[in-house]
Amino acid sequence: MTVTEGSAREVTAAPRRARYLLDRERLLGPALVTPAVVYLVLVVAYPLVLAFLYAFSDVTTGSQSLHFVGFQTFIAAVKDPVFLTSLSNTVIFTAASQFLVVVLSTVLAFVLTANFRGRWFVRFLVLMPWTTPVALSSVIWLWMLDSIFSPFDWFAQVLGIVPPGGHIVFLGQSGLAMGSVIALQTWRIMPLATVILMAGLSAIPSEVSDAAEVDGAGFWRRLFGITLPLLSPVMTVALLFGIVFTFTDMAVVYVLTGGGPGNATQVLSSWAFYKGINGGDLGVGAADALFMFPVLLGLAAIMLRLASRAEVG
Amino acid sequence: MAVVETKALRKEFGATAAVDGIDLVTGEGEYLVLLGPSGCGKTTLLRLIAGLEHPSDGDIIIGGQVVTHLPPRARQIAMVFQSYALYPHKTVFANIAFPLAAAGVPREQRPEKVRWAAGLLGIDRLLDRKPRQLSGGERQRVALARALVREPQVFLLDEPLSNLDAKLRSSARDELKEFQQRVGITTIYVTHDQVEAMGLGDRIAVLNEGRIQQIGTPDEVYHQPANTFVATFVGSPPMNLLTRDDRLLGFRPEEFLPASVMGERSGQAIFDFSVTRVENLGSDRYVYGHLPEVDPEAKVIAKLPSTVTTPVTVGDQLPFAVNGGDLRSYDRQTGVRIASGGAAVKP
């Protein structure tokens, strides 16, 4: 038998076995994407569609009957004076806490990327608020800010801010209650922002900082001329995450003040909850909640743009 | 222009000394190359001079002033980094202007200086671009312009060519040399590439394990290596070393030629060369083998230029010769050169 050079003696058909199934991209791709799609449909898309349906209907917790009522629910929602209070509270709550988060977490990120003894322990402590369930941490804060047993009162008494035996009553006065809610939200969001900023800081090449030092720049010029500008894209990401988490959050308000005193700390999401679930008027509650939708849509668009720019850059 | 001097300079990282007692004095306007393998301490030494690292011991003197404990900005030095370390968010103009701003040069005087530095390096038309829009060679020039603009006393260059591709590297090397001769600023240049070191340096300091092994002109370092480390680190292929009694005998591959080509000379050493491999590189032939009579263990390489057409094939045993003056001897224990070397006769 003569064999032409280079040709195989025998040709066997490629085995079509199950174990090669996942090597086929037409199967592997959908297989990998499906869990995420199922999750999104069940947890995000389905509730969102429901919210839209409810917002244009007269549904209540008592009756499942859906009658289309047009914009009546939205008109009812806006006419309620608490709605405007909630809207402005939401904006104040978000803006103030996120301003504090950006400033404090930047400082913290610088501290935690520096070398010092016991750094791992400080990092651990800083991350704690993030890993603690919000219900648990809010209850702890509820005690910290208690009108009678607050440890802050004790400090205030010792420092002479309140008379001996006096109390500050954090959650009973509108201004202090808002401040408390903002402080707790800042405390909760800061670890995530800090971790994001630490990652951003470590991504700045050390030679760039060295170059700035050799080029004669002192600490402040290096900070504001080099480091912070290079950190700003990452800072934007941290800020956007913080805004999304805060704008829609009701846990802190719900546990700490229940929207009170009066409606001084009522935010959109808590108001929607009280109105829709506690008040039973699901339609108006859904309409209240949907007022957050355009803001979140805008933020999502900005985040997607940033993400795609980061890919190109 | 200034003289840079280090006195018994040491830098320890944990238990290891990256820089282990270095005394070094540059000439005024000299181009000094620090050459050594990776981990030899050359970059640490440069960073110490720059002020980016603090010495464990010893002193650094720039322009007659002890600067050991001064921050980089007080040292009147400029440094070009391996990655160029351009500020990615600033334009080329703002990059070059940054040291001026840091030095407090009034805003209205900066454009003129920036244009002067950019002109020297031929990057005038790139001033509005961002670093990511530049090629490797252009980035290197921006880094040089940024270093130059403040008219520093000393230039420190940390492997500035290693990020360029091979073709660009040789032209960039020419430009660097020409540029330094034009500005005449004392330059300390770190590299692990001996071709760069030989081509650029007025003097070369060869470093290993945190110590200076030899400092001298490229010619001295190549032809009179002070010890076996320098002998084998500088030169490609490295110097052949044969063990004989308590000495090591050294000669360069290009000094080892067929006896028929060399012709007879007094003091010449002739060895029987047993050939195991021949590599033809076009301009040269590398002949690998050993000398069974002298040191059968040692591998020996002969580098024959293409002008030598003597046929050499694997398995041959041919007489090869070295001129007496080209034979160096080194102490077998310490590796240090023995000055009287060269008195070798055919065994």
CATH class of the largest domain in chain B: Alpha Beta
Number of extended strands of chain B: 19
Order the strands across the largest sheet of chain B as they lie in space.
6-7-8-3-9-10
Rg from Cα of chain A: 27 Å
Number of strands of chain A: 0
Structural class of chain A: mainly alpha
pLDDT averaged residue by residue of chain B:
88
Description:
The complex is a heterodimer of chains A (313) and B (347). With 313 residues, chain A is mainly α. Chain A has a single domain, classed as MetI-like fold (Orthogonal Bundle). In chain A, 70% of the residues lie in helices and 0% in strands. Chain A has 13 helices and no strands. In chain A, helix 4 crosses helix 7, helix 8 runs antiparallel to helix 9 and helix 9 crosses helix 13. The longest helix of chain A is centred in the N-terminal third of the chain and has 33 residues. Chain B has two domains: 220 residues, Rossmann fold, CATH 3.40.50.300; 99 residues, Beta Barrel (OB fold (Dihydrolipoamide Acetyltransferase, E2P)). Chain B is built from nine helices and 19 strands. In chain B, a hairpin with a 2-residue loop joins strand 4 and strand 5. In chain B, helix 2 crosses helix 3, helix 2 runs parallel beside helix 4 and helix 3 crosses helix 4. Chain B has 347 residues and is an alpha+beta fold. The C terminus of chain B is likely disordered. Chain B has a six-stranded mixed sheet, with helices on both faces. In chain B, strands 13-17-14-15-16 form a five-stranded antiparallel sheet. Chain B has a four-stranded antiparallel sheet with strand order 2-1-4-5, covered by helices on one side. At the A-B interface, helix 8 and helix 9 of A face strand 6 and helix 2 of B.
